[in-house]
Structures are given as C-alpha cells and as structure tokens.
Write a sequence for this structure.
C-alpha cells in the first residue's frame, strides 16, 4: 500500500511520494533542496541535447518560457474527466462561447479579465472545441474493459522524488496515477494514430521507455522493489478517438534506464560546469554526411531508370 507524504510547502528534502505539490512548484528550480530533473528533462537531453534542455530549464536565468503542449493538456483533461466533473472542474475551465451577451473575442477586456480570474484559480482553460475532443476521448476510454476495471485508477498526480546514487542528482516523476494497491503503473497518452507501427514510433520519439524506466528506478529507491509493469493507454486526439493499450517490455525499460543514466550524467555535468552542449557536442570541424541507405538505393534505382 502506497503511503504518500503531505507536502509541507518547502523544497523536498527526503525521498518519497508527496501529495499536494502544485504543478508549477513541481516544475520549478525549488522543487527539491538541490538541483533536480524530471522525466521530461531527461528525455529532452537524450532525444535532443543538453543545450535543448537548458533552453527551457528552470535553472536558466534566460530560459525560454514553454507552454504546455495542446496534446498534454488534452491528455491531462481527459484523465481528470474520467474521474467525474467535480475532479475535472478543480483543474479546468471551459471557455464560454459568449460573455456579457456578446460572442467571445480575446481582444475584449471582459474576456481577458475572465482568463485572468481562471489563471488566479490555477485552472487550465479549454476552448469549446478542445472540451468536445476531451469529452469524446473520455467517452471512448470509458468503453475500454481495462479502463472500466480501473487500470487508470490511483493517486492522481502525486510527485515522486529521490536521489540518483551515482551523481547525487535529485530525480522527479509525476505519473498520471500512482497505484496504491499494486506496482502496475499506467499512463494516459494522446496520439494521432493508434496503428501498431505508429505507436512503436511514438514510444521511441517521445521517450516513453525512459519514462517507464524512471518510475521503475523510483520504485526501487522509495519502495524497495521494482515496478511490476508500465502500461500506456493511448487515445487518438481526433474523432473517432480510437484507443489502444500497450505494455512496455522489460528489454525496452532496460534501454530506458541506460538512456536515463546518460542524461542524468549530462545534467550533473552541466550544472557543475555551466556547459550545455548541443547535438554536435564539442566537434569543431565539419563532418561528412550522407543519405541514409534506403534513400541511396531509391535514388540509384531512379537514376538507373532515367539512364543517368
């Protein structure tokens, strides 16, 4: 049985699972008493570069402010809607189509004031079209037998924090739901397509194998045992909102652990030296580049057909 700690309002100083950490605090430089990084940061370092990570890092005094992507907002909203409108209304507000007897217009003062009030409440605003999509996704998810059985149930958006043994860096994770009666984790994801080959690409492109591996490490450190499984519930973000539920294999979680270890070392080095390298690393000379093998073959065949 998972026993979360109540957040005290101060930076986290002890490994554990915490309830009540606001999302803006979780993503801040003061989430923990020492520098920390979350799954999204590790994935950005590995899939892009340390320099790409630092551009939006809370430790960068010149950071580029990034807004939560529309896909993430829709996924989070659908998850909350699954647990009922009361839960949903705590986190989200639906933008009215009319206000003060007139059609919504972002340039009107009354509309801007309405948005400011929702921001003060800490609620994310959805357009009517976005809410329609969220409702459609939730309706389809409700039809899934595994969702009906409670695969997405658990402690909603609790924050996990622990120290990496090798570097001493604090690591953070915030699963959609932390299961309180098992170690079978499940995360909801929106996607453009649930075709099998598209899902394989999505898991790779977005580093979801790293996300599962990080949760696995958190379980080992905080709970003293590895997770049992890491499952992704995918739902398409456009009609007909098809769904697919997939569980990552142990081999890919192992690859994710190695990718995370690399990214954690790069983060630790960057915080220590102040150097955040891009994809080219420290290479100063020009490098050779060539077409991939499949395009070389395709091009050769066309040139041959053209008699060139």
């Amino acid at each position: 049985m998972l026993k979360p700690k109540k957040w005290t309002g101060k930076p986290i100083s002890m490994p554990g699972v915490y309830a009540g950490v606001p999302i803006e605090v979780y993503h801040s430089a003061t989430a923990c008493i020492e520098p920390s990084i979350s799954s999204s940061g590790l994935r950005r370092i590995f899939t892009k570069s340390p320099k790409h990570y630092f551009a939006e890092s809370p430790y960068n005094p010149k950071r580029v402010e990034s807004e939560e992507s529309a896909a993430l907002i829709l996924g989070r909203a659908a998850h909350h809607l699954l647990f009922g409108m009361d839960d949903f209304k705590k986190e989200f507000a639906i933008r009215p189509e009319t206000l003060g007897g007139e059609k919504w217009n972002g340039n009107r003062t009354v509309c801007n004031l309405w948005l400011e009030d929702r921001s003060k409440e800490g609620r994310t605003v959805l357009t009517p079209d976005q809410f329609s999509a969220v409702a459609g996704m939730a309706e389809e998810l409700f039809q899934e037998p595994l969702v009906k059985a409670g695969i997405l149930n658990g402690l909603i958006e609790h924050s996990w924090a622990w120290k990496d043994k090798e570097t001493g860096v604090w690591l953070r994770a915030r699963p959609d739901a932390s299961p309180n009666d098992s170690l079978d984790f499940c995360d909801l994801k929106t996607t453009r397509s649930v075709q099998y080959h598209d899902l394989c690409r999505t898991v790779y492109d977005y580093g979801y194998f790293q996300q599962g591996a990080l949760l696995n490490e958190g379980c080992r450190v905080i709970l003293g045992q590895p997770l049992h499984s890491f499952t992704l519930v995918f739902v398409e973000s456009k009609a007909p909102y098809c769904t697919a539920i997939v569980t990552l294999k142990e081999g890919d979680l192992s690859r994710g652990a190695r990718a995370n270890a690399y990214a954690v070392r790069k983060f630790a080095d960057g915080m220590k030296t102040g150097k955040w390298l891009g994809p080219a690393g420290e290479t100063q000379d020009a490098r050779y580049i060539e077409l991939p093998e499949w395009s070389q073959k395709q091009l050769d065949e066309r040139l041959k057909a053209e008699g060139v």
